[in-house]
From TrEMBL:
GO aspect biological process, one term: defense response
Keywords carried by this UniProt record: Dioxygenase, Iron, Jasmonic acid signaling pathway, Metal-binding, Oxidoreductase, Plant defense, Vitamin C
A UniProt-annotated Pfam family: DIOX_N
Reaction(s) the record says it catalyses: jasmonate + 2-oxoglutarate + O2 = (1R,2R)-12-hydroxyjasmonate + succinate + CO2
Cofactor: L-ascorbate; Fe(2+)
Fe2OG dioxygenase domain mapped to chain residues: 203-304
Keyword Metal-binding: yes
Identification of the protein by name: Fe2OG dioxygenase domain-containing protein
Signal peptide: none
Amino acid sequence: MNCIWPEPVVRVQSLSESGIWKIPDRYVKPPSHRPSLNHNAVVSNIPVIDLAEAFSHDAAVRSETMLRLSSACKDWGFFQVVNHGVDVELMRNIREIWREFFDLPLDSKQQYANDPVSYEGYGSRLGVEKGATLDWSDYFFLHYLPAKLRNPGKWPQFPETCRDLVGEYGKEVSKLGGKLMKIFSSNLGLQEDGLQDAFGGEDFGGCLRVNFYPKCPQPDLTLGLSSHSDPGGMTILLPDENVAGLQVRKAGNWVTVKPVPSAFIINIGDQIQVLSNAIYKSVEHRVIVNSAKDRVSLAFFYNPRGDLLIGPSKELVKPDQPALYPSMTFNEYRLFIRTKGPCGKAQVESIKSSSISRRN
Ligand code: OGA
Ligand code: NI
């Protein structure tokens, strides 16, 4: 893959701050992809789950919570968790420090400019297709795990506490991810360590993508992040407390998530959909922007080790539930979104149909 972007990189934040009142054509989505801001408003929310109740001494509370988690993974692919064990102060601090990073002058951020091979650093697009319609956001992407891919030298040096906080935050959210992996495994009827083992045990991967969605003068024409499903295992999202923007697809509608204070938003990624043989759903989501407030979110991707073959767990393949997907490594799988950019559920759907047609 070429190691430069197909077109000169434009920072969306600079565009936004330049005071334009009309967005460049590159950001204008075809009408069917626009957010339709004023209609189809859906007034439900993704399930909210108190994670402490999954470990309650009261067996009835425990099983009721496990059931709610199970339905959330099957029916929504998304839920919010409270009482998740991550220090709320740390959550506030890390969001603030990244806000400060994006508030730095452009020059200070440009030294971290990323390229389409590693993606690591300060970026403004996903995918390398020339002439693609772009999303209204900038981001910072970094590798946290495995340790051999971690390069704090590429993480922001300013604000000063940024690197330490990323280290601490990564550790805490990885722990939360590990707890959820056990819960998902038990709920799927696997050994408690089943999913984690499939991810490579302690060698699982973890990346952080910090999203910055600048104010947009024409929010009804574009998206902060186009519809996609997350290619990895699961995503632990720290949303902006004050600004909604994430929308989740449910029965053909877009449900705007209302962030609960101090909660994380968890979603199933394509790798868990594959491992669970589609019992758990990696659901399409997107981000809308607005003209009044910018928005910062931190997505921590909890991924399988890159070089392991991931396919449906053998316990979940039965004569009446044939394997829906072939096995593939995550390194191979993630090249798709890195080439094409966000494309709804096109990737996981495409591997599914090819495996079925091979069988027929
Ligand atoms: C992502 C993502 C949602 C958000 O980074 O994959 O879906 O609210 N982010 O920023
Ligand atoms: Ni996502």
